[in-house]
Amino acid sequence: MRKTPPETKTTDTLRVASADGAIVAQQWLAAFAPKIRPKLSEFMCDHARSDDGAKIRPFPFQSDMADSFTDPETAQVSVRKSSRIGYSTILQSFVAWRIKYDPARTLIYQPTIDDAEKFSRDDLDPVLQWSVVRTVAQFKPRHSDNQIRAKRYKGGWIQIKGANSPKEFRRVTSDDVFLEECDGYPWASKEEGDPARLAFKRNLTSPRRFSAAGSTPKVKGFSRIDSLFEQGSQEYRYVPCPHCGHMQTLVFGDGTGAGIRWAPKENPTRAWYQCEQGCEIDEAEKPWMDENGEWRAHNPGAFPRHRSFHIWAAYSQHPGAAWLEIAREFMEVRKDPNLLRTFVNQVLGEAWAERGEAPEWQRLYDRREKAMRLGTPPAWAGLLIGAADVQRGGGGRIDMDIWAFGPDKKRAFVERIEVFGPIADKRTWTKLDKEVSREWESEDGRPMRLARVAVDSGDGENTMEIPAIGLKTAVNALIIIGIGGALAPLFAA
Ligand SMILES: [Zn+2]
User: How far, in Å, from the CA of 291 to the mean position of ligand 1?
Assistant: First the structure.
C-alpha cells in the first residue's frame, strides 16, 4: 500500500489513498465475514464426528457454550462442569476449527504428561483425521510434524503439555492456552507458583490471545475452576417448566423442594423433576426444555470478555445422565463420603465442602443420613473420632459428630450427638462425658471407642475451662481444644 505523508497529499493522492483504503477495508471485511468463519456450533453440525464416524449435533445448551469460543469479543472461557455434558467435543471441534479457519499457536495443558499423551492419542488424533481438517492439513503417521505431544501445520501448531512438570511451562509462547481438568493439577510449589497461573502466562504477549479452562471442581475453597467461574460472567442455564412456564435452573435438591425426585426411595425405578412451583416434570420433556432454555449471566459485567458457564449432568440428554440414572447413582454412593464426594464433583459438577462449611451440603448429608444405619461405624473403620462444637446461644448446646476413619484416608460420618445445657455448667459436660465414654458396635460386630475428641469452642472464650470442667472420665479420649480452623487438619483430605 502506498504511504503518503498527510502534509504532502494533493487532492489526487488523497483519492488514491482512499481507494487503497477501501480495498484494504474490503479485504478485512472479507477476512472477518461470518460466512468465512462459521460459529463453532454451525461448524460442529457440519463437520464434528464421534469416534464411530457418526455426525455430532450439539444440544442447545452446548451450542451457546461452543459459540463463545469463536466469538471475537470473547478472550476467555471458563466452564465448571460435571462429566457427561460434552465439553471435550466442544474443545476438539474448536481445535479443528482453528486448523481450518484461523491457524494459531495452541497450548493444551492436561494434569499430567501421561494424561497429555492419552489425550493426544484418544481425543486429538481422531480430530486430525476429520475430513474437514484433512482438506487443509495432513497429519501423517510417524512424521516429524506429527509427534505425540507436538503437532505442526501450515500457519500454526498444537502442543499438549502436562501440568505436573515445571519444565512444561518454560520457553514457549502461544496464542491459545487451554487448561483441561485444572482442578486435577498439582498444587503450587513455592519456587514455581501455581501451574494454572504459569500456563496463562504463556500467551500474555500474543496480540490475539485466547484462553479457556474446563474442569470438574474438586474441593471448595481450593478450586481453580470455581475462582475462574467467579471471575467470569457466571452463566447458569435456565429452562422453562413445560407445565407452568416458570424459568429455573436445575438443581439436585434435598428431596423437599425443587430437584430430582424418585421412587421407590431405596431402589429407584422411576424419577422425575419437581419444578420450583411444584409441577412434576417427566424426563421426556428434557429436549423441549433445553430447546427453550437460555444462559443467564449472574455477573454481566464480565460479559462478553470472559464468559463462564456452570453446567451439570441433569441438563444432558446423554442416556447415562437421565434423572433416573442420577438418582440411582446417588443411592449407591450416599453412604460413603468418598464416593459421595466423587458424585458431587463428577455428576453435580460442584466443589465438595466439608460439613459445617456450607449449609447447602448439610442438607445433602441429612438426606444421606436418613438412608443409612445411624450410629454404626462401617466394617472398614479403624478409628473413631468425635468432633464437638460448642453452641452458646439458645440455652447452650454441644454438638458432637462421630467420624469413622479407615485405610486410604477413608472416612464416614457415623452420627451426631447433641447435648443440651449451659456451657458454663459442669452438668452439661458430665452429660457429654457419658457420650464420649460410650461404646459403638461396627458393622462387622467389633466394639469401638472414641480414640480422640476434638472440642472447638468457636469463639475461644472458654477454651481454658473446657478440659478442666469436663471429659475427665473419658477412658481413651485425648482432648484437643480447637480454636477457629484448628480442626481443619484432622479432616483435611
Ligand atoms: Zn412448573
Answer: 16
* Residues whose CB falls within 8 Å of the CB of residue 26, separated by 6 or more in sequence, listed in order: none
Q: How many CB atoms lie within 10 A of CB 237?
A: 23
Number of compact structural domains in the chain: 3
Task: Give distance in angstroms: CA of 262 to centre of ligand 1.
Answer: 17
pTM as predicted? 0.68
Q: Could you give the 3-state DSSP secondary structure of residue 119?
A: helix
User: Cα of 328 to ligand 1 centre, how many Å?
Assistant: 24
Domain boundary among 231, 258, 274: 231
Are 170 and 286 members of one domain?
Answer: no
> pLDDT tens, 64-100?
999 999 999 999 999 999 998 999 999 999 999 999 9
Same domain, 175 and 262: no
Q: Indicate if 199 and 260 belong to the same structural domain.
A: no
Domain residue limits at 278: 236-346
Residues 331, 391 share a domain: no
Of 44, 89, 40, 42, nearest in space to 68 by CA:
40
Query: Ligand 1 mean position to 259 CA, how many Å?
Result: 12
Q: How close is the Cα of 265 to the center of ligand 1, in Å? A: 23
